[in-house]
Amino acid sequence: MSELHFRRATAADVEAVVALLADDTLGSARESASPELAECYSRAFAEIEADPNQFLCVVEDNGCIVGTLQLTFIPGLSRQGAKRGQIEAVRIARDRRGEKLGEAMFAWAIETCRAHGCGLVQLTTDKARPDAHRFYDRLGFEPSHIGYKLSL
């Protein structure tokens, strides 16, 4: 692994990010890189880009996008007004898994949350991802809550 470069995604990166999101057992059922959905992803990216509390990150190695994650900075009143950093949509290129990229991405994400004044970093993970659960446990995250979702 050479020097990783973490940066804010641009509109030119959307196709690569969607491909990473779709290249996964669960993601393949939720995402599609089909041209028919390009406009949906472009609209979503425009919203993310316009929101100062969002950071869609791409991770490059030798100019190639090898990972992505999205940070959301959530101001709140609870925990004495602490801001939270939410980490979502973490993906690493299939051919680069097992190279410790996840550790590097989380170190960067946690430091970025700290730099934005967050007092807490949180994430959600699908119950069907036991390998991810072990990874998050190893990083010191605690499974302290049960998450619920309602599809609309």
TrEMBL record:
Keywords: Acyltransferase, Transferase. InterPro entries: Acyl_CoA_acyltransferase, Bact_Acetyltransf, GNAT_dom. The lineage of its organism: Bacteria, Pseudomonadati, Pseudomonadota, Alphaproteobacteria, Rhodobacterales. Residues 4-152 form the N-acetyltransferase domain. SUPFAM superfamilies: Acyl-CoA N-acyltransferases (Nat). Pfam families: Acetyltransf_1 (PF00583). Coiled coil: none annotated. Transmembrane segments: none annotated. One of its GO terms (molecular function) is acyltransferase activity, transferring groups other than amino-acyl groups. This is N-acetylglutamate synthase, GNAT family. Gene3D superfamilies: 3.40.630.30. It comes from the Bacteria.
